[in-house]
Amino acid sequence: MTKCLTWIATAALGAFSATAAVAEYPERPITMIVAYSAGGGTDIAARTLAPFLEKYLGNDASITVVNRPGAGGEVGFTALANAEADGYTIGFINTPNLLTIPIQRDTRYTLEDIQPVANIVYDPGAFSVLPDAGIENLDQLVEYARVNPGKVTYGTTGIGSDDHLAALAFERQAGVEFQHVPFDGNADVRAAVLGGHIMMASMNVSETIPDADEGTLVLLGQMAEERWEGAPETPTFQEQGYDIVMGSNRSLGAPAGIPDEALQKLSAAAEATMQDPEFIAAAEEQDLALSFRNADQFSQDLQNLQQRYEELWEEQPWIDE
Amino acid sequence: MDILANIAAAAPLVFSLDVIVAMILGTAVGIGVGALPGLSATMGIAVLIPLTFTMSPLVALGMIAGIYNGAMYGGSIPAILLRIPGTPAGIATVFDGHEMAKQGRARTALRISLVSSAIGSGVSAVALLLVAPPLAAVALKFSPADYFWLALFGMTTIAVLLSDNPAKGFISACFGLVVGMVGIDSMTGTERFTFDQINLLSGVNIIVLLTGLYAIPPAIDLLLGRANLDTSGLTFGGKKERIDWSSFIPVWIRASVIGLFIGLIPALGGNVAALLAWNEQRRVSRSENYSKGAPDGLAAPECANNADTAATLIPALTLGVPGNAVAAVILGAMLVHGLRPGPELFRDNAPTVYGFMLTMLITSGLMYVIGSLGARAFINVLRLPPLLLGPMILALTTVGVYAVQNSMFDVWLMLGFGLIGFGMERLNIPTAPAVLAVILGPMAEASLRRALRISGGDYEYLFSSPISLILVGLIILALLTPIIRRLMARRRAQGADSRSAP
C-alpha cells in the first residue's frame, strides 16, 4: 500500500515537473508598476494598455497595475529596478524623469538596472500662447523676447521636466531669456496661460492640441522630428530653424536581466497591441501619441537621450547646486 | 431655454435601471470610503476607473457622482463620532461635531451633518446644471498673487483656533509649517528636510499627517481606557432631539456660497471650503459656543464641503481645468470613455454631460436616504467596547494609509505623527493649527514665489488685481474683528461698571 502510494506520488511529481519545464511564460500573474498616482495620465495609459497585453501574451495572462508614486517617479523606478528579474514584474518608465533624476541627484537605480521592453508613447514638447498675444511662430516669439526682455513668462510642470529642459535649450539656441514659472501639474499650467497670468505654456503637444483646435491657444511649434499626426498643421521646431527635438516617452520596462523568452514575448505583445484597431481607437480618445519602438531600438534611443541630457546638465544645470 | 431642453433630453437616460443602480451603489460605496480614515473619494474613483471600461459612460459617471458626493458626507461620520476626520474635508467638522457627540448629542449631530451635506450638494449640483459656463470664467481669473492672499486668508483661521493659549497654538502652527516644507522645493528643485530619504522627496501626504494626528491619539486613549465619550445619550427611543431647521437657513446660504466659490477656484478643495465656512460662521455669529458643540458650527462646514463637490466640476467640465485631485481623476475617467472636457464636450456629448450633472443632483438626494438608513448602524460604533474599537481604528487607518501610495513608509510616518499627536494632546497643544498650516503653508509659499517670478520681483504685483485687494481687505477684517469686538465689550463692561457704581 505504502509502496503504491509512493509510486503514485513519484509519478505525479514527475508529471508536475514535466509540465513546469514545458510551461510557457507567463504562467502566473504579472505586476505592472506605475510610478505615478492612480487616475493620472500615465496610470490611465497603463490601465488601457494592460488588457491588450494580456490578450497578446496569451496563456491566460493577467496583469495587475500597482501605483508607486513619489519623488517624480523615482520611487516607482527604484522599485522596478530592484524587483526580481523573472519577467513577472514589469513597469511603465517615463522619460525624461527616468534619465534626468539620476543626473540631478543620487539615486538607488541607474539606467543599467532597467531593461527597456518597448516604447508606447512619444509625446513631443510644444510652445503655445493666447491668440491675443499676436504671436504665431517661433521667430515672432524670439523677436518679442528681444524687444521686451524679461516679459516672456512660461509655465511648466516643474524643474527638470521635459517642458523645462526644452525651454532652456530653446533660450540658449535663440539667444533670448525667458522667465520660468514652475507649476505643480499640467492642469495648473493650462489654467495659468488661459487666464493670462503667464504668457506662454510649455506643454506636451497632446496636452495642447485640444485648446489649439478650439482656438483658445495658438501652437507655435512642436518639438518632434516629424509632425505628430494628431497635430498635422503645427510645424516642428526644426522646420522653423531651431534644432530642438524633445518630449516625453511612456514605455514598458523590466528589471535588467529578465529571461530572454519573457522579454521577447512582452515586446511582441506590445507590438501586436499597437497594431490592434481597438487599442488605437482608445489611444486616440485619450490623445496618446503612439510611437512603437522595440526593445533594441528603444534601448539605443535611451542611450542617446541620456547622453544629450548629460551634456545639457554639463553646460547648464537646471538645478542650483 | 437651451439648458432645459438639454436636461429634458438627458433625463430619460439617467432614469434607466442600470444608471439608478449605479448611483445607489456609488453613493453607498462613497459613504463607506469617506468614513474610513485614509481612504478618500480620489482613491475610490481611481480604483473604479478600470472597472468602468466596459460600462456605458453614464453608468460609470453616475457611480462616480455617487462616490464623490457620498465620500464628502461619509468623512464626517467618524469626525463626529470619534473625532477622526475620514477625509481631509472633515477636519472642520471635528471642531463642533465631535463636541456635540461628547455631550451625548451624536445622533442630532449626524442628522444636522447629513441634511447640511445634502443641501450643500444639491445647491452645488443645481449651479453646475444651470450656470456652469458663466461661473467657469471665475476659475481662470485667479492669478498666483490671488492664491497667495487666499492662502493667507485661510490661515487667519489659525489665529482664531489658537485663542485659548496662543503660545501653544503657535508651536502647533510652526510644526505644521515645517512639515509642509519637507520635500523637493518646486521652484528650485532643491531638497528640503528630506534626510536623503526618497519617500520624503514628494513631501508629506496630507492624508498621512491628518490620519496620524487625528486617528491615532483617540485609538491610544481607547486602549488606555481613557475615552471621554458620553454614550449615555445614544439610546434609541422615541425621543429624538427636536431640531429647529429654519434657524440653519442663513448658515446654509453662507456656507453654500463659500463652498461654491472655493470649488470654482482650482487647487482649493473641500477642506479649505469647510474651514473658511466654519470661520465665517463663527465670525458672523457672536456666540461664544464655537468649538464647544455649536450646531451652527457643524452645519456650516458640512454644507460647504459638499457645496464644493459639483462646483469643482464646473471648471473641470467646461474648461478641462480640474479644481482638485478628485476632479482630475474624474476627467481621466471621462477620457477613457471618449468624453474630452472643454467646450466641445457640451456640443458633442450634451446628453451624457447633462446626464452626469443630473446624477450629481440625484445622488445628493440618495445620500440623504442612504445616510438616514445608515445612521443607526454608524452610531453603534460608539457602543463597541473600547478595547475592540481601539485596535479596529489602528487596523483600518493602517490599511487606508498604506493604500494611498502603496507605501509602508507612509504607515510608519503616520504612526510617528500619531505619537506626536498623542504627546501634543497630553500637553494641551491643539493639533488643528498644524493641519491647517500643512494645507495652506505650501500653497502660500509656492504662489508667492510664483507671483514674484511673474512680476520679476516686483511686490506691487501682489496688489494689482481686484481679487487680491478684496482678499487683503477680508484678511484685515478677519484679524481686526475680534480685537474690535473685545474693545467694545470692555467699553460696555466699563460703562456698566460705572453705572452700577454709586
Describe the model.
The complex is a heterodimer of chains A (321) and B (502). With 321 residues, chain A is of the alpha/beta class. Chain A folds into 2 domains: 31-122 and 247-315, 3-Layer(aba) Sandwich (D-Maltodextrin-Binding Protein, domain 2); 124-222, D-Maltodextrin-Binding Protein, domain 2 (3-Layer(aba) Sandwich). Helix content of chain A is 44%, strand content 20%. Chain A contains 11 helices and 10 strands. In chain A, strands 1, 2, 3, 4, 5, 6, 7, 8, 9 and 10 form a 10-stranded mixed sheet that branches. Chain A is globular. Residues 13-22 of chain A have low confidence and may be disordered. Chain B has 502 residues and is mainly alpha-helical. Chain B has a domain at 2-139 and 248-405. Chain B is 74% helix and 1% strand. In chain B, strands 1-2 form a two-stranded antiparallel sheet. In chain B, helix 8 (144-161) packs parallel to helix 20 and helix 11 packs antiparallel against helix 12 (270-284). Chain B is globular, with a radius of gyration of 23 Å. The mean pLDDT of chain B is 86. At the A-B interface, helix 2, strand 2, helix 3, strand 6 and helix 7 of A face helix 3, helix 7, helix 14 and helix 19 of B.
List its traits.
heterodimer, A: 321 residues, alpha/beta, D-Maltodextrin-Binding Protein, domain 2, 2 domains, globular, B: 502 residues, mainly alpha, two-stranded antiparallel sheet, 20 helices, 2 strands, 1% strand
Beta strand % of chain A? 15-25%
CATH fold label of the largest domain in chain A? D-Maltodextrin-Binding Protein, domain 2
- What's the tally of helices of chain A? 11
Number of structural domains of chain A: 2
Mean pLDDT, all residues of chain B: 86
By DSSP (H or I, 4+ residues per run), the number of helices of chain B equals: 20
List the secondary-structure elements of chain A in sequence, H or E: HEHEHEHEHEHEHEHEEHHEH
User: Largest sheet of chain B, if any?
Assistant: 2 strands, antiparallel
User: Oligomer, anyone?
Assistant: heterodimer
- Head-to-tail CA distance between termini of chain A: 77 Å
Structural class of chain A: alpha/beta
Structural class of chain B comes to mainly alpha
Helix content of chain A: 40-55%
Alpha-carbon Rg of chain A, integer: 23 Å
- The top-level CATH class of the largest domain in chain A is Alpha Beta
Largest sheet of chain A: 10 strands, mixed
Give the total of beta strands of chain B. 2
Gross geometry of chain B: globular
Strand content of chain B: under 5%
